[in-house]
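Below sits the subject:
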Amino acid sequence: GKCRGCIMGKMQHAPKRSFTSVTSKVGEHLHVDIIFIKNLNGLKTPYLICVEECSGFLHLIKLNSKNKVINGLLMIILWYKSYKHQVEYIHSDSEAVFKKSENDLMKSGIHMEFSSPGDHEVFAERAVRSLKDKVRSTIYDLPFRLPYSLYSYLFMHVAMNMNDTPNSKTGTSKTPRGMVMGIMEPGRHIKSYFGMLVLAHEINRKDDMDAKSNFGIVIGRELFSTSVKVLNLDTLHVCIRNNIEEVKITNEAIAFINSIADKGPIAIIDDIFTDDKKELPLAPNLNNFENTISNDDDAMNYHENEFEKSENNIINNKNIESN
Protein backbone atom coordinates (compact mmCIF):
# COMPACT_ATOMS: atom_id res chain seq x y z
CA GLY A 1 0.00 0.00 0.00
CA LYS A 2 0.90 3.65 -0.02
CA CYS A 3 3.22 4.97 2.67
CA ARG A 4 1.95 7.54 5.12
CA GLY A 5 4.08 10.30 3.58
CA CYS A 6 2.64 9.73 0.11
CA ILE A 7 -0.88 9.70 1.50
CA MET A 8 -0.33 12.93 3.45
CA GLY A 9 1.54 14.65 0.64
CA LYS A 10 -0.40 13.57 -2.43
CA MET A 11 -3.82 12.41 -1.28
CA GLN A 12 -6.63 13.97 -3.27
CA HIS A 13 -10.24 14.54 -2.40
CA ALA A 14 -12.61 11.70 -3.23
CA PRO A 15 -14.19 12.09 -6.71
CA LYS A 16 -17.17 14.43 -6.61
CA ARG A 17 -20.52 13.44 -7.94
CA SER A 18 -21.41 14.72 -11.38
CA PHE A 19 -24.73 16.37 -12.14
CA THR A 20 -27.20 13.88 -13.55
CA SER A 21 -29.83 16.52 -14.26
CA VAL A 22 -29.65 20.23 -14.98
CA THR A 23 -32.54 22.66 -14.85
CA SER A 24 -34.00 23.82 -18.16
CA LYS A 25 -35.27 27.07 -16.65
CA VAL A 26 -32.89 30.01 -17.06
CA GLY A 27 -32.07 31.78 -13.80
CA GLU A 28 -33.71 29.21 -11.54
CA HIS A 29 -30.47 27.79 -10.09
CA LEU A 30 -27.30 29.83 -9.45
CA HIS A 31 -23.99 28.43 -8.20
CA VAL A 32 -21.58 30.77 -6.40
CA ASP A 33 -18.08 30.88 -4.96
CA ILE A 34 -15.43 33.43 -4.03
CA ILE A 35 -12.19 33.96 -5.95
CA PHE A 36 -9.33 36.39 -5.32
CA ILE A 37 -7.80 38.58 -8.05
CA LYS A 38 -4.56 40.55 -7.76
CA ASN A 39 -4.94 44.32 -7.56
CA LEU A 40 -2.68 47.35 -8.02
CA ASN A 41 -0.32 46.41 -5.19
CA GLY A 42 -0.23 42.72 -6.00
CA LEU A 43 -2.57 42.03 -3.09
CA LYS A 44 -5.71 39.96 -3.62
CA THR A 45 -9.25 41.37 -3.79
CA PRO A 46 -12.29 39.11 -3.26
CA TYR A 47 -14.79 38.66 -6.10
CA LEU A 48 -18.07 36.80 -6.09
CA ILE A 49 -18.32 34.44 -9.07
CA CYS A 50 -21.75 33.19 -10.09
CA VAL A 51 -22.57 30.61 -12.77
CA GLU A 52 -26.11 30.10 -14.01
CA GLU A 53 -26.91 26.39 -14.20
CA CYS A 54 -28.97 26.22 -17.39
CA SER A 55 -26.69 28.28 -19.67
CA GLY A 56 -23.36 28.60 -17.85
CA PHE A 57 -23.62 32.42 -17.84
CA LEU A 58 -20.93 33.96 -15.60
CA HIS A 59 -20.97 36.99 -13.33
CA LEU A 60 -18.03 38.53 -11.48
CA ILE A 61 -18.70 41.06 -8.72
CA LYS A 62 -16.05 42.91 -6.77
CA LEU A 63 -16.59 42.73 -3.00
CA ASN A 64 -15.31 45.36 -0.58
CA SER A 65 -14.65 42.47 1.75
CA LYS A 66 -15.30 38.75 1.77
CA ASN A 67 -17.99 39.29 4.42
CA LYS A 68 -20.17 41.36 2.08
CA VAL A 69 -21.32 38.46 -0.07
CA ILE A 70 -25.00 39.31 0.46
CA ASN A 71 -24.57 42.59 -1.44
CA GLY A 72 -23.25 40.76 -4.48
CA LEU A 73 -25.94 38.08 -4.30
CA LEU A 74 -28.72 40.67 -4.20
CA MET A 75 -27.21 42.52 -7.18
CA ILE A 76 -27.20 39.33 -9.23
CA ILE A 77 -30.77 38.43 -8.25
CA LEU A 78 -31.99 41.87 -9.32
CA TRP A 79 -30.03 41.61 -12.57
CA TYR A 80 -31.71 38.31 -13.50
CA LYS A 81 -35.09 39.74 -12.51
CA SER A 82 -34.52 42.65 -14.92
CA TYR A 83 -34.39 40.03 -17.70
CA LYS A 84 -37.54 38.35 -16.37
CA HIS A 85 -35.72 35.37 -14.85
CA GLN A 86 -36.69 34.31 -11.33
CA VAL A 87 -33.91 33.02 -9.07
CA GLU A 88 -35.18 30.27 -6.78
CA TYR A 89 -32.08 28.44 -5.55
CA ILE A 90 -28.51 29.51 -4.84
CA HIS A 91 -25.91 26.79 -4.30
CA SER A 92 -22.62 27.34 -2.49
CA ASP A 93 -20.09 25.59 -0.30
CA SER A 94 -20.46 25.66 3.49
CA GLU A 95 -18.39 28.77 4.16
CA ALA A 96 -19.72 30.95 6.97
CA VAL A 97 -19.94 34.01 4.69
CA PHE A 98 -22.54 32.21 2.56
CA LYS A 99 -24.44 30.73 5.48
CA LYS A 100 -24.84 34.22 6.94
CA SER A 101 -26.76 35.22 3.79
CA GLU A 102 -29.36 32.45 4.12
CA ASN A 103 -31.90 34.35 6.25
CA ASP A 104 -31.79 37.49 4.07
CA LEU A 105 -32.39 35.44 0.94
CA MET A 106 -35.21 33.43 2.52
CA LYS A 107 -37.11 36.70 3.03
CA SER A 108 -37.16 37.00 -0.76
CA GLY A 109 -38.28 33.40 -1.23
CA ILE A 110 -34.85 32.20 -2.36
CA HIS A 111 -33.44 28.98 -0.94
CA MET A 112 -29.76 28.38 -0.30
CA GLU A 113 -28.33 24.89 -0.62
CA PHE A 114 -24.88 24.08 0.75
CA SER A 115 -22.35 21.39 -0.10
CA SER A 116 -21.13 19.10 2.66
CA PRO A 117 -18.50 20.57 5.01
CA GLY A 118 -15.08 20.22 3.40
CA ASP A 119 -16.52 19.84 -0.10
CA HIS A 120 -16.49 22.45 -2.85
CA GLU A 121 -19.63 23.45 -4.71
CA VAL A 122 -19.08 21.32 -7.81
CA PHE A 123 -20.75 23.49 -10.45
CA ALA A 124 -19.06 26.72 -9.32
CA GLU A 125 -15.70 24.97 -8.83
CA ARG A 126 -15.69 23.82 -12.46
CA ALA A 127 -16.50 27.35 -13.66
CA VAL A 128 -13.70 28.81 -11.51
CA ARG A 129 -11.21 26.26 -12.85
CA SER A 130 -12.20 26.95 -16.45
CA LEU A 131 -12.05 30.74 -15.92
CA LYS A 132 -8.61 30.60 -14.30
CA ASP A 133 -7.25 28.28 -16.98
CA LYS A 134 -8.29 30.71 -19.71
CA VAL A 135 -6.93 33.71 -17.81
CA ARG A 136 -3.63 31.93 -17.23
CA SER A 137 -3.38 31.00 -20.90
CA THR A 138 -4.02 34.61 -21.93
CA ILE A 139 -1.38 35.97 -19.55
CA TYR A 140 1.32 33.63 -20.85
CA ASP A 141 0.38 34.38 -24.45
CA LEU A 142 0.88 38.14 -24.03
CA PRO A 143 4.15 39.55 -25.40
CA PHE A 144 4.47 41.85 -22.35
CA ARG A 145 4.07 41.70 -18.57
CA LEU A 146 0.55 42.55 -17.44
CA PRO A 147 0.26 45.21 -14.71
CA TYR A 148 -1.50 43.87 -11.62
CA SER A 149 -4.12 46.60 -11.82
CA LEU A 150 -5.31 45.10 -15.12
CA TYR A 151 -5.82 41.57 -13.82
CA SER A 152 -9.46 42.27 -12.94
CA TYR A 153 -10.05 43.51 -16.50
CA LEU A 154 -8.56 40.32 -17.87
CA PHE A 155 -10.84 38.17 -15.70
CA MET A 156 -13.86 40.16 -16.83
CA HIS A 157 -12.79 39.97 -20.48
CA VAL A 158 -12.41 36.19 -20.29
CA ALA A 159 -15.79 35.85 -18.53
CA MET A 160 -17.46 37.90 -21.27
CA ASN A 161 -15.83 35.74 -23.95
CA MET A 162 -17.15 32.63 -22.20
CA ASN A 163 -20.62 34.21 -22.13
CA ASP A 164 -20.36 34.83 -25.89
CA THR A 165 -19.19 31.31 -26.74
CA PRO A 166 -21.43 28.24 -27.19
CA ASN A 167 -20.83 25.52 -24.61
CA SER A 168 -22.07 22.04 -23.74
CA LYS A 169 -25.12 23.50 -22.00
CA THR A 170 -26.22 25.88 -24.75
CA GLY A 171 -25.52 23.70 -27.78
CA THR A 172 -23.76 24.95 -30.92
CA SER A 173 -26.46 27.40 -32.02
CA LYS A 174 -26.77 29.43 -28.79
CA THR A 175 -24.59 31.27 -26.30
CA PRO A 176 -25.03 31.90 -22.56
CA ARG A 177 -25.58 35.60 -23.26
CA GLY A 178 -28.17 34.78 -25.88
CA MET A 179 -30.09 32.49 -23.53
CA VAL A 180 -30.02 34.85 -20.55
CA MET A 181 -30.17 38.30 -22.18
CA GLY A 182 -31.82 37.45 -25.49
CA ILE A 183 -28.88 38.88 -27.47
CA MET A 184 -27.31 36.84 -30.25
CA GLU A 185 -24.10 38.16 -31.86
CA PRO A 186 -22.00 35.20 -33.04
CA GLY A 187 -18.27 35.91 -33.15
CA ARG A 188 -18.64 39.19 -31.27
CA HIS A 189 -15.70 38.36 -29.02
CA ILE A 190 -13.35 37.71 -31.97
CA LYS A 191 -13.38 41.31 -33.22
CA SER A 192 -10.81 42.39 -30.63
CA TYR A 193 -8.57 40.54 -28.23
CA PHE A 194 -7.01 41.31 -24.88
CA GLY A 195 -3.60 42.99 -25.17
CA MET A 196 -4.09 44.10 -28.79
CA LEU A 197 -2.04 47.23 -29.56
CA VAL A 198 -4.24 49.84 -31.21
CA LEU A 199 -4.47 53.44 -32.27
CA ALA A 200 -7.61 54.75 -30.56
CA HIS A 201 -9.53 57.90 -31.47
CA GLU A 202 -8.84 60.66 -28.95
CA ILE A 203 -11.94 62.68 -28.08
CA ASN A 204 -10.38 64.93 -25.41
CA ARG A 205 -7.87 66.93 -27.41
CA LYS A 206 -6.77 70.15 -25.71
CA ASP A 207 -5.42 71.75 -28.87
CA ASP A 208 -6.46 71.56 -32.50
CA MET A 209 -2.99 70.38 -33.44
CA ASP A 210 -2.93 67.50 -30.93
CA ALA A 211 -2.98 63.99 -32.35
CA LYS A 212 -6.41 62.62 -33.19
CA SER A 213 -5.45 59.16 -31.96
CA ASN A 214 -3.18 57.67 -29.32
CA PHE A 215 -1.58 54.31 -28.74
CA GLY A 216 -3.34 51.97 -26.33
CA ILE A 217 -3.93 48.33 -25.52
CA VAL A 218 -7.33 46.64 -25.50
CA ILE A 219 -8.28 45.41 -22.03
CA GLY A 220 -11.96 44.58 -22.43
CA ARG A 221 -15.27 45.08 -24.22
CA GLU A 222 -18.60 46.71 -23.57
CA LEU A 223 -21.64 44.54 -22.92
CA PHE A 224 -24.19 46.24 -25.18
CA SER A 225 -22.03 47.65 -27.96
CA THR A 226 -18.98 47.00 -30.09
CA SER A 227 -16.96 49.53 -28.06
CA VAL A 228 -13.81 48.36 -26.33
CA LYS A 229 -11.98 49.40 -23.18
CA VAL A 230 -8.54 50.76 -23.97
CA LEU A 231 -5.63 51.62 -21.71
CA ASN A 232 -4.26 54.89 -23.13
CA LEU A 233 -0.48 54.49 -23.04
CA ASP A 234 0.01 58.25 -22.94
CA THR A 235 -2.25 59.16 -20.01
CA LEU A 236 -2.52 55.68 -18.40
CA HIS A 237 -6.27 56.23 -18.22
CA VAL A 238 -8.78 53.55 -19.14
CA CYS A 239 -11.22 54.82 -21.75
CA ILE A 240 -14.04 53.40 -23.87
CA ARG A 241 -13.69 53.71 -27.64
CA ASN A 242 -15.49 52.39 -30.70
CA ASN A 243 -13.01 53.68 -33.28
CA ILE A 244 -9.75 51.72 -33.08
CA GLU A 245 -7.15 50.49 -35.55
CA GLU A 246 -4.88 47.53 -34.79
CA VAL A 247 -1.16 48.14 -35.21
CA LYS A 248 1.73 45.69 -35.10
CA ILE A 249 3.32 45.58 -31.68
CA THR A 250 7.02 46.48 -31.63
CA ASN A 251 9.85 45.75 -29.21
CA GLU A 252 9.75 49.39 -28.14
CA ALA A 253 6.03 49.11 -27.30
CA ILE A 254 6.63 45.89 -25.36
CA ALA A 255 9.45 47.53 -23.35
CA PHE A 256 7.22 50.52 -22.59
CA ILE A 257 4.32 48.38 -21.35
CA ASN A 258 6.73 46.31 -19.26
CA SER A 259 7.96 49.52 -17.64
CA ILE A 260 4.37 50.36 -16.73
CA ALA A 261 3.96 46.93 -15.16
CA ASP A 262 7.16 47.44 -13.18
CA LYS A 263 6.36 50.84 -11.72
CA GLY A 264 3.48 53.20 -12.31
CA PRO A 265 -0.09 53.14 -11.00
CA ILE A 266 -2.87 53.03 -13.55
CA ALA A 267 -6.05 55.10 -13.31
CA ILE A 268 -8.61 52.30 -13.48
CA ILE A 269 -12.38 52.09 -13.42
CA ASP A 270 -13.90 49.47 -11.15
CA ASP A 271 -16.56 48.18 -13.52
CA ILE A 272 -16.32 44.44 -12.95
CA PHE A 273 -20.05 44.55 -12.28
CA THR A 274 -22.05 47.46 -13.65
CA ASP A 275 -25.68 48.22 -14.24
CA ASP A 276 -25.24 47.52 -17.93
CA LYS A 277 -28.34 49.48 -18.90
CA LYS A 278 -26.68 52.72 -17.80
CA GLU A 279 -24.04 54.59 -19.78
CA LEU A 280 -20.53 54.55 -18.38
CA PRO A 281 -18.72 57.90 -18.19
CA LEU A 282 -15.95 58.55 -20.70
CA ALA A 283 -12.31 59.28 -19.90
CA PRO A 284 -10.84 61.20 -18.18
CA ASN A 285 -13.71 60.99 -15.70
CA LEU A 286 -13.01 57.29 -15.23
CA ASN A 287 -10.43 58.05 -12.56
CA ASN A 288 -11.44 56.75 -9.13
CA PHE A 289 -14.89 55.81 -10.45
CA GLU A 290 -16.29 53.30 -7.94
CA ASN A 291 -19.62 51.57 -8.33
CA THR A 292 -19.48 49.20 -5.38
CA ILE A 293 -21.50 50.14 -2.31
CA SER A 294 -19.20 50.59 0.66
CA ASN A 295 -21.73 50.99 3.45
CA ASP A 296 -23.64 47.86 4.47
CA ASP A 297 -26.71 49.78 5.68
CA ASP A 298 -26.85 51.81 2.47
CA ALA A 299 -26.47 48.64 0.46
CA MET A 300 -29.29 46.83 2.25
CA ASN A 301 -31.59 49.88 1.93
CA TYR A 302 -30.76 50.11 -1.77
CA HIS A 303 -31.53 46.46 -2.42
CA GLU A 304 -34.73 46.52 -0.33
CA ASN A 305 -35.97 49.53 -2.32
CA GLU A 306 -35.06 47.83 -5.60
CA PHE A 307 -36.90 44.66 -4.60
CA GLU A 308 -39.95 46.70 -3.62
CA LYS A 309 -39.91 48.53 -6.97
CA SER A 310 -39.52 45.26 -8.83
CA GLU A 311 -42.41 43.61 -6.96
CA ASN A 312 -44.64 46.65 -7.60
CA ASN A 313 -43.82 46.53 -11.32
CA ILE A 314 -44.73 42.84 -11.45
CA ILE A 315 -48.06 43.51 -9.70
CA ASN A 316 -48.82 46.45 -12.03
CA ASN A 317 -48.01 44.35 -15.10
CA LYS A 318 -50.31 41.59 -13.89
CA ASN A 319 -53.10 44.14 -13.34
CA ILE A 320 -52.61 45.51 -16.86
CA GLU A 321 -52.69 42.01 -18.34
CA SER A 322 -55.85 41.09 -16.42
CA ASN A 323 -57.57 44.28 -17.61
